[in-house]
Amino acid sequence: MGLQARQIQSQKLAPRMIQSMEILQLHALALQERIEQEMNENPLLEQQDVDPLAPDEEVEAPDADTRSESEKELVVDGESDNSEDFERLQNMVSELPNAFDEPFKRSANRMQDEADRRHDLMANAQSRPESLNDFLLHQLQEMDIDDRVEQLAERIISTLDARDGGYLRMPLVDLLPAGHTDDDVELAEQALAIVQSLEPAGIAARSLSECLLRQLKSNFPHYDEMTTLVTSHLKDLAENRLPQIAKQTGFSIELIQDVRAELHVLNPKPGAAFMETYVPNVTPDIILEQDDEGEYQVRLDDDRVPQLFISEYYRKRLQDPSATAEEREFIKQKIGSAQWLIESIEQRRSTLTKVSQAIVEHQKKFLDEGPEAIEPLKMQQIADKVGVHVTTVSRAVDDKWIQTPRGILPLKRFFVGGTQTDDGDDVAWDTIRLKLQELIDKEDKSEPFSDEKLVDELKKAGMAVARRTVTKYRKRMGIPSSRQRRDWSLKK
C-alpha cells in the first residue's frame, strides 16, 4: 500500500448545466410540475397570474382604506419599528385560542352545500372497470357448490390474468397443498370444470385447442369438421398447409376454408376483454400553422407555463442595510437559483422553437402530401442546421408532440432512416414499407410473392433493398410469409 499523486483532466457537468438539460427534456405538463416544485422550494420566485378569459384586463386591488385592520398588508422594513403591524399581529394571536376552543358550528345551508359537492365528486369520479377475477367470482358466488370445491375454484380464478388471455398456465397439482391425495386432485378437476363453465366461454383453458373447443357449439354448420381441425390440425391451419390437411382428413380444400372462416369467429383470448386500456392524454408542445403564403410556422404552446420573476421585496431586502449577513447570503443563493431557472425555461423555448422549425422545413413534403412523401432525416442533420449538439436535439424532441394538419404527431416521428435508389436519391424506410404493402396487396394470391421476388419488384421501382431487410419489415408489419398468404382455392 502507498500514496500516489496523479493529475487527471476530466469533464464534469455543473449542477446548473444538468438542470438546464433536464428543463429542455420536459414536456409542457411536466414543466408546470417542475415550476410548482421550484416555487415551493424558492420563496423568491413569483409568477404572473393571467386570466386566460380576459388577458387584457387588469384586476384592481382593493383600496387600502376599505380593508379592515386584519386585512392590511404587513410590510417589514428597516426604516421604522413597525409597531402598528406587530401590535396587529399580537391582537390576532391573542384571539386565536378562544376561536379554536369553541366548537365549529356549520349552518344548515353550508352542510347541504358540502354534501352536494361530495355527491357531485362521487358521481363524476371515474369508476374502476370490473376485473376478470371479480367477474368470475361474482358468477361463482351464485352457484351452490361444495365449500372445498368453491375454495379451489377461487384459487384457480386468482391465477388467471387478463393480459394472458385468461389461460390457466399453472398445473392443478401446484394449487394443492403438500401431501395432497387423489381425492384432492379429483376435487381440483371438478373446480376447474366449474370455472371453465363460466363466462366468457373458453376461460381457464390450458391450451389454445382447449380454449376453442370450449367455445364450439353444436349449432355450428360444420361442428364436426371444426372439432377435427381444432383437435388435430391447428398448427397446419396456422401455416396454411391446407393440402396436407385435406390429405389426412379427406376434406376438400373448399370445405377446409369454410371451416377456417367459421373458426375465426371464436375468441382465442377470452380474458383479454377485461384488460384495462390506458389512453395517454397527449398535450402538444408545438402548434404548426400556415401563413398567408402557405409556409409552415411553428409556435410554442406554452400558455399554460406561468411567467416567472424574482420577488421585488427580496431584491430590496438584499440592498437593505439592516439585513444580516446570513440573510444576504440566503437571498443571493436563491436569486441565483431563480435566475438560472428562468433562463433555462427561456433557453428551452428558444431551442425547441428552432429545432421544430428546422424539422418542419425538412419534412414539408410529408406535411403536404402524406406519409409516403416523408424523407430520410437524422438528428445530426438538424443539429448541424440549428448549430447545437446532437444530444441537445435528442432532448428537445424527447416526449414532445406537435399539432399538424395531419394530426398530433410525436416529433420523433419525423426522424426516419433510409437508403439510396439506383439514381442516387434518398428514400425513407417508411416509403419502402408503403411500397411493400402495395405490392403484397396487388399480388396474385394463387402465387404470392416470395421475399426474393419482393426484392426484385422493389428494385424495379428504384429501391435497392436486401432480402433480409424485406423479411424484417414484412414481419414488423405483421404480414405472413408467401406460403401463409397463398389462397389454395384459386386455380393456378
Automatic annotation (TrEMBL):
Keyword DNA-binding: yes
Sequence segments annotated as region (Disordered): 39-83
The RNA polymerase sigma factor 54 core-binding domain, residue ranges: 123-314
Lineage top rank: taxon: Bacteria
Residue stretches of biased makeup (Acidic residues): 54-63
GO MF entries: DNA binding; DNA-binding transcription activator activity; nucleotidyltransferase activity; sigma factor activity
Regions annotated as coiled coil: none
RNA polymerase sigma factor 54 DNA-binding domain segment(s): 329-486
Any one Pfam family match given in the protein's UniProt record, by short name: Sigma54_AID
PROSITE patterns assigned to the protein according to its UniProt record, in alphabetical order: SIGMA54_2, SIGMA54_3
Keyword Nucleotidyltransferase: yes
A biological-process GO annotation: DNA-templated transcription initiation
Keywords: DNA-binding, DNA-directed RNA polymerase, Nucleotidyltransferase, Sigma factor, Transcription, Transcription regulation, Transferase
Cellular component per GO, a single term: DNA-directed RNA polymerase complex
Entry-linked InterPro entries: RNA_pol_sigma_54, RNA_pol_sigma_54_core-bd, RNA_pol_sigma_54_DNA-bd, RpoN_core-bd_sf
Biased composition (Basic and acidic residues): 64-75
Family indicated by similarity: Belongs to the sigma-54 factor family.
Name the UniProt record assigns to this protein: RNA polymerase sigma-54 factor
Organism of origin: Stieleria marina
Organism placement in taxonomy: Bacteria, Pseudomonadati, Planctomycetota, Planctomycetia, Pirellulales
Gene from which the chain derives: rpoN
